[in-house]
Each structure stands twice: as structure tokens, then as C-alpha cells.
Specification:
The complex is a heterodimer. Chain A is mainly alpha-helical. Chain A is built from 13 helices and no strands. Chain B folds into 2 domains: 230 residues, P-loop containing nucleotide triphosphate hydrolases (Rossmann fold, 3-Layer(aba) Sandwich); 74 residues, no CATH class. Chain B has a 9-stranded mixed β-sheet, sandwiched between helices. In chain B, strands 2-1-4-5 form a 4-stranded antiparallel β-sheet, covered by helices on one side. In chain B, β7, α7 and β8 form a beta-alpha-beta unit. The mean pLDDT of chain B is 90. Classes of the chains: A mainly alpha, B alpha/beta. Chains A and B meet through α9 and α10 of A and α2 and α3 of B.
């Protein structure tokens, strides 16, 4: 087991290293110059040079890369070009908002998606299953920004029952009022983000449940005298949820990196919005930091997913 | 009163358009309490569907067309799902052909065997369930049973899994145990061990319905035999009658394709062709195409089941004389 963890750790570090390197060069391949955005016409050449020097932009590309990697190893992600604050601090101020949105989405997926998938499987081929399948197909193929604008149009513009954007209405409210406001503000982005994930969860749960219900051991369970409810609960569900857990786990990892489009449409102050702002501001260090967080999240989540799947399925041995 | 009685039972399969093709046609036989019956035939003869019909565990596409299946004098086909749940795994239990896939991969062996007790004796204490589970594992020859309770199916070999299946099926001392090709998927040496266990079970006074294509197994265990071909019982009778004096050309073909120690033939005789699918059944005798003694009448008319000797029934136009049963 400890060997397995070590090996996973090694592979994770390698994944993160490759992704950090790729991001470093891709960001710098953007056809514009961050300095041009930072300086104002009033600045003297001397001031500009000092600024360039402060951010290390006067160094050759490879030198910048090695400097960045060196600092990163010591836990320093650099200074944001746009905010002039440490990137770590900048990202940490946004991360909780993305995690909150993520939690809301996963709650919807697990509480609604899995039961609907199980229900559809038990009604396979009947009218209700067909209706669910049609909605699921629509959910998977729908263009999320369109859905986001549609939700905004209906609930914020027409019905005026939900706010249009942000996480709360400024000035920052206190205590319970803050909780209430955030709860209202999170509804629309959470719904918009849930749709595809929800549809996927329903689809995976339904299909694997249908497969499992045709397994020989399900027939054995009936032959013992189990009723249908017990067969599903005790014999089918654990087997059927294994693929769903894998899919949900991977989705969580990806979503920590923020949903750029949805967060931007709803002005949700998370990592996705940060990526959008940083691209606009050519804020290289912040972009690199955001992608680093994403890579770390994917690595950690795939590890956790493997642990959960191994716990559900005794055939999987993590030691080998 | 027999323990189990199939009365002119017919079933078939529904295709996507709702058309039903008949498989089992007018099947009748019975099993007396404590007796062992062998149901014999090649793959695709409807043997498994016969046992699943009795368990009422037929696949979704299956349709019961007519007849009765009596168990303890009650028609299984008319019982409610609740009544069936009380019988299954209790008075009536079944061992399946595929030990590798018939156990739940994510539940422990102890859990899966104990469940049979728990379902039918909910008042048993956990200790008692555990003790009986261990005893049942020991009775099918699993060593170190206590330690194996917490293991999962993938930690057992095929033969061991089939032993677990048997332990599960007999733990409630069923009045009838259906064994659907319990040895087919196993190695030859393991087959012999499993058969020994099955033979040992016979002493426990419960009835046995042994579904198999292996006549050797039938000869060792059963008292009565039903030979099935393409969904019909072509011949049935006592073990002695069928083995000493097989009448139906299909039964004779099956018998002569068993290798013997004394035979000096270099090649075993085989029945040419294979069992037709339900879409290729002719309107006469279903064996007609492969029968060396096929007559013109066989193609036209379904042979009647006639009593030709003491406890010996055959459905073949070669033997048109006899009492209609």
C-alpha cells in the first residue's frame, strides 16, 4: 500500500511538472506583451525598465523558466502582474468560491442524478425511461453559455426572483444575511453548471445499473428469495455505482479549475473568472498559478477516486 | 402427491414485434419427494428454461404459453411474487451453471451465504447465522471455513465457488434442489469432487432435479430421467428403463456417443447436425432433420407421448402403439 502511494505520488508530481512547463510556455506564446498593459504613458523609460526587472521580464525565456521553477519549488508562485499581490494569496481568495460552487453542483448531481439514473434503469424501455433519456441527451448536448443566458433571462430579467450575478450584493453583508445572499446568488450558476454533469451522472448510473441487473449474481440474489428492492439495494447498487464514482471524481478534479464561461457569465468570483480576467490582463503568473491548482486538483481527485473505487470493489488491489 | 409436477407446460420467447416463438412444448413430468430426476439433452434444448420456469426466474423476453407447474400442489405460475420469495432459497433452491459469475463480486462469501438464512429466518441471532454458515461451508468441503467467511468470490477458484453456491442452496434444507449443469464450467477433476458432494446431498432426503448433458452424471445420481430435445420431452422413464432400453433415436444417439472402456471403435458415433433454433422448428417431430430413421409422417405430425412400458414414455412415430398419457 505504501509503495502504491509512493508510486502514485511520483506520477502525480511528474504530471504536475509537465503541465506547469507546458502552461509556462503556452502562456508566453500569446501574441501580446504584458508590459504594454502594465505601463502608462506617463512612465519614464527608467521606470519601465525597473518594472520589467521587478517581474523578471527582461530575462531570456529559459532563464525566466528556471527562475520560476526554482521559486515554485520553494512555494512561491510569483507576483500577479495585474494586482501586484502574491499569486498564492490572489488564488486563495478565489478558490473558496469555486469550491462552494463545486460543492453545490456535486450535491445536485449526487442527490438528483444518481436516484434518477437508478429509477430510469428500473423502468428500462418504458415511457418514463424514454423521457429521461431524451432529457439526458439534451442535457449533454446543450451549449452551457446559452443555458446560462436563458436562466438569467427567465429568472433574473423576466421573473426578477434571482440576482443576475456576483456572489452577494455589495456592500458585503454580515452574518446570516451574507449566507442568505450567497445562497440566492449561487442558485443560477450551480444549475447552469450542473446540467451536463447531472446528465452524465444519470446516463452512467442508468447504463451501468442496466448492465448489472443482467448479471448472473443478480439472478442468484433472486433465487435466494430476495425481493426486488433488496436486490437493487444490496446486490446491484454498489456494483452499479463504480463507474459513476469514477466519472464524478474526475469531473470534480476538472471543475476545481473553475468553470471559466459560467463563472464569467454570472460574475462568480471563482478561479474560472480569475482565469478569464488574467487572460485579459496578460497576467502570466496568475494564469500559471490557476493552471497549477487545476493540475494538482486533477491529480489529487484521481487518487481519491481510485481509493473510493478500490473500497467499493474488493477485486481492485492497490498494492499491485 | 408428487413434489413437482409439470403439466403440459409450454413457453416461448417474444421478439421485438411481440411475436411469440415456442420453445418448450407440452412438457410433462413429475418428481416425487426425495427423488432425483435427471433432465438430459444437448445445449439449447430448453433444459435451463425448464428449471428457470420452476423458479419463476425466466428472462424478460420469455412468455408462458400454457400449462401448469405444481410445487407442493400449488401452481407456481399463479403465485404472487411475494409467495415466490418465500419459497425461493428455502423450499426450492437452485445451483447455476456459471460459478464464476453467479456470486456477487462486492460482497463477502459469509455475507452471501448468511443472507439465505437471514431472509428466511429473520429471528436467528447473528452468532447462530455465523455458526450455521461455517457448518454449511464445511459440509461442502471448504477447509478453514471460518477464515474464508470474510473473503470475496475472486479469492476462490471455480470449484470453490461452486461449493459456495451449493452451500448457499442447501443451507435451508430445500425440498427440491435444482442443479443446472453444476459441473459443466469446471475442470474434470473438480467435476468429480462436486459430483461427490451432490451424491452426498441425496442422503438428506430432499429432491433433486439434475439438469445436465452428461449421461454419466445422471447414471450415478438419478432415479428417473427426462430426455429433452428442442423443448420437448422425447423420452422419459426410470433410469433403468432409459439406460437399458433406450427407444427414441435421439436417446440412442446420446447413449452411443458416450465413450466406453471396452469399445474398440476408433471414432465415437455422433448425432449429425445440431439442435435447431426456435425459428427453425418444423411442424412435425423437431428431431426429424437429424434422425436416421426419419419417416414421412415425422415431418408432418408431432409424435404423441405414449406409455410403451412400465414407467417408460416415448414420443416417436417408430413406437405408435401405447397408452396415451
Amino acid at each position: 500500500m505504501s509503495r502504491y502511494i509512493l508510486r502514485r505520488l511520483g506520477r502525480g508530481v511528474l504530471t504536475i511538472f509537465v503541465s506547469v512547463t507546458l502552461v509556462f510556455f503556452i502562456v508566453r506564446a500569446m501574441p501580446s506583451d504584458p508590459v504594454a498593459l502594465m505601463i502608462s504613458p506617463q512612465m519614464s523609460q527608467e521606470q519601465i525598465d525597473t518594472l520589467m526587472h521587478t517581474y523578471g521580464l527582461d530575462q531570456p525565456l529559459m532563464t525566466q523558466y528556471f527562475l520560476y521553477m526554482k521559486e515554485l519549488l520553494m512555494g512561491n508562485m510569483g507576483m500577479s502582474f495585474a494586482k501586484r499581490i502574491p499569486v498564492g494569496e490572489y488564488i486563495m481568495s478565489r478558490l473558496p468560491w469555486t469550491l462552494m460552487l463545486l460543492a453545490a453542483v456535486m450535491l445536485i448531481v449526487c442527490i438528483i442524478g444518481i436516484p434518477i439514473g437508478l429509477y430510469a434503469a428500473s423502468r428500462k424501455g418504458k415511457l418514463s425511461d424514454r423521457i429521461i433519456s431524451i432529457i439526458v441527451t439534451m442535457g449533454i448536448s446543450i451549449f452551457i453559455p446559452f443555458m446560462a443566458f436563458l436562466l438569467l433571462y427567465i429568472f433574473s430579467f423576466r421573473l426578477k426572483i434571482l440576482p443576475t450575478g456576483g456572489a452577494y450584493t455589495p456592500p458585503t453583508p454580515e452574518g446570516f444575511e451574507l449566507v442568505k445572499q450567497v445562497a440566492c446568488h449561487i442558485i443560477l450558476p450551480a444549475i447552469a453548471l450542473s446540467i451536463t454533469n447531472l446528465a452524465n451522472a444519470v446516463l452512467y448510473t442508468r447504463n451501468s445499473m442496466i448492465d448489472v441487473l443482467h448479471e448472473d449474481y443478480i439472478r442468484t440474489a433472486y433465487a435466494k428469495g430476495n425481493d426486488r428492492k433488496r436486490v437493487i439495494r444490496r446486490h446491484a447498487m454498489k456494483n452499479a455505482l463504480i463507474p459513476t464514482v469514477t466519472v464524478i471524481g474526475m469531473q470534480i478534479g476538472i471543475m476545481v479549475g473553475g468553470a471559466t464561461i459560467t463563472e464569467t457569465v454570472f460574475s462568480w468570483p471563482g478561479i474560472g473568472r480569475l482565469v478569464y480576467d488574467s487572460v485579459n490582463a496578460l497576467d502570466y503568473p496568475t494564469l500559471q498559478g490557476a493552471f497549477l491548482i487545476m493540475a494538482v486538483a486533477v491529480v489529487i481527485m484521481s487518487f481519491i477516486t481510485d481509493l473510493v473505487v478500490a473500497w467499493l470493489d474488493p477485486r481492485i488491489k492497490l498494492g499491485d | 402427491m408428487p413434489l413437482v409436477e409439470f403439466h403440459n407446460y409450454s413457453m416461448g420467447f417474444k421478439d421485438d414485434d411481440g411475436n411469440v416463438s415456442n420453445l418448450i412444448d407440452n412438457l410433462s413430468f413429475s418428481i416425487d419427494e426425495g427423488k432425483a430426476l435427471g433432465v438430459v439433452g444437448e445445449s439449447g434444448c430448453g433444459k435451463s428454461m425448464t428449471s428457470l420456469s420452476l423458479m419463476r426466474l425466466l428472462p424478460d423476453a420469455a412468455v408462458v404459453q400454457s400449462g401448469k407447474i405444481l410445487f407442493d400442489g400449488k401452481n407456481v405460475l399463479e403465485m404472487s411474487e411475494k409467495e415466490m420469495e418465500v419459497i425461493r432459497g428455502n423450499r426450492l433452491s437452485m445451483i447455476f451453471q456459471e460459478p464464476m459469475t453467479s456470486l456477487n463480486p462486492v460482497l463477502t462469501i459469509g455475507n452471501q451465504i448468511g443472507e439465505c438464512l437471514l431472509l428466511h429466518h429473520p429471528d436467528l441471532a447473528p452468532d447462530e447465522i455465523r455458526a450455521r454458515t461455517i457448518r454449511s461451508l464445511e459440509s461442502v468441503g471448504i477447509n478453514n471455513a471460518e477464515a474464508r467467511l470474510s473473503q470475496y468470490p475472486h479469492e476462490f477458484s471455480g470449484g470453490m465457488r461452486q461449493r459456495v453456491m451449493i452451500a448457499m442452496a442447501i443451507i435451508n434444507h430445500p425440498a427440491l434442489l435444482i442443479a443446472d449443469e453444476p459441473t459443466t464450467a469446471l475442470d474434470v477433476t473438480i467435476q468429480a469432487q462436486i459430483l461427490d458432494i451432490m451424491k452426498g446431498l441425496k442422503g438428506d432426503s430432499g429432491g433433486l432435479m439434475m439438469v445436465t448433458h452428461n449421461l454419466g452424471v445422471v447414471a450415478e445420481i438419478c432415479e428417473e430421467v427426462v430426455v429433452m430435445y428442442a423443448g420437448r420431452a422425447v423420452e422419459r422413464g426410470t433410469l433403468k428403463a432409459i439406460f437399458d432400453e433406450p427407444l427414441h433415436p435421439y436417446t440412442i444417439g446420446l447413449m452411443s456417443s458416450i465413450p466406453t472402456m471396452t469399445s474398440d471403435k476408433s471414432e465415437l458415433p455422433a448425432i449429425p447436425g445440431s439442435v435447431p433454433t426456435i425459428y427453425d422448428f418444423g411442424k412435425g417431430c423437431r428431431f426429424a432433420d437429424r434422425c436416421s430413421k426419419c419417416m414421412e409422417r415425422c415431418m408432418r405430425e408431432v409424435p404423441k407421448s405414449l406409455l410403451v412400458g412400465k414407467d417408460h414414455i416415448v414420443a416417436c412415430w417408430l413406437y405408435p402403439e401405447g397408452e396415451v398419457v
